[in-house]
Prior knowledge:
Blueprint: E1 6-14, H1 18-30, E2 35-39, E3 51-57, E4 66-70, E5 72-76, E6 82-85, E7 90-96, H2 97-110, E8 114-118, E9 120-127, E10 130-136, E11 142-152, E12 165-177, E13 186-191, E14 201-210, E15 213-222, H3 228-242, E16 248-261, E17 268-270, E18 273-275, H4 291-306, H5 318-333, H6 338-348, H7 351-358, H8 364-371, H9 376-385
Parallel strand pairs: 1-2, 1-11, 2-8, 5-13, 11-18
Antiparallel strand pairs: 3-7, 4-7, 5-6, 9-10, 10-11, 12-15, 12-16, 13-14, 14-15, 17-18
Helix pairs in contact: 1-2, 1-4, 5-9
Amino acid sequence: xxxxxxxxxxxxxxxxxxxxxxxxxxxxxxxxxxxxxxxxxxxxxxxxxxxxxxxxxxxxxxxxxxxxxxxxxxxxxxxxxxxxxxxxxxxxxxxxxxxxxxxxxxxxxxxxxxxxxxxxxxxxxxxxxxxxxxxxxxxxxxxxxxxxxxxxxxxxxxxxxxxxxxxxxxxxxxxxxxxxxxxxxxxxxxxxxxxxxxxxxxxxxxxxxxxxxxxxxxxxxxxxxxxxxxxxxxxxxxxxxxxxxxxxxxxxxxxxxxxxxxxxxxxxxxxxxxxxxxxxxxxxxxxxxxxxxxxxxxxxxxxxxxxxxxxxxxxxxxxxxxxxxxxxxxxxxxxxxxxxxxxxxxxxxxxxxxxxxxxxxxxxxxxxxxxxxxxxxxxxxxxxxxxxxxxxxxxxxxxxxxxx
Length: 404
């Protein structure tokens, strides 16, 4: 049997989503390694355009691909009262996948050691001196890539065993209204003025792009996604009954499912094969935010390769994951009221500190102070029972890529 031709680089990155593109960006930016990015060819394996959001300091290094940003954040409680915060020096930022792809593809094209390959990655395995990826090209031909390290961002076939498993699932409309209805300076992170499900919580999410344009989403934290019909109905009620937008045009839609779980995601699947992105545990379990953690991990990987280290740092610290496990369990059991819990966080904690907490960048002392401003008794009860709960496998979730 004829073996497919081999192609060699320092690093192969599988997948052209947020994690794969971000790592390719950092590697080409620093010149830490020669890199080949394997993206699926046009067709059903390529995802539609997506939106990724995160917060960063005002001098963030992705300014050229940020399509919108907001210096004020707002949360609407279920009682209708609103909290508006100014999280300086942070701003909340939106990145659309298409401009980000174009930016990273341009970096790869200009880099002597960069390459973009449109192909389907079939198998990945360790070999002496590194790993190899066997690919099928759009023409049907085969190609074997060899590298010292492979970073795989493809979704896992099934989530690892967990004590708690919820989903953040959503559908969004990019809307245009007949008159000015939005304040482009304020992003609504959570609007709990929507009917709450029997289990979990629901909220609206509004990112204004102009006085007459915005991304409006309906989101739930619960155990199972809805039908498209149910999302559309919830979005229609939210836009009209809560926001009062009047006549509007839906220009684009997007929809996704993000795992919220205390599962332990393995960071490697071989001696030279590493998992990144949601598959590697980059999604923050209690919020679904992924993009900021992906940026931190990508920088750290590039620095490690540049300095000759072989380790891949965890995307989240142990304290952050332990606190998230308690919160997820408390939400899943109904011991805390989700809308009140998240609204009170923004009411009681300085915004800059809260955002650092959500990014896992607070000190133990700051975290203790934040913990005292949550429902202490149900949280302590939950923390006490977690060590005795078994981790169980569940059916796999068809998880989309996090927009957060």
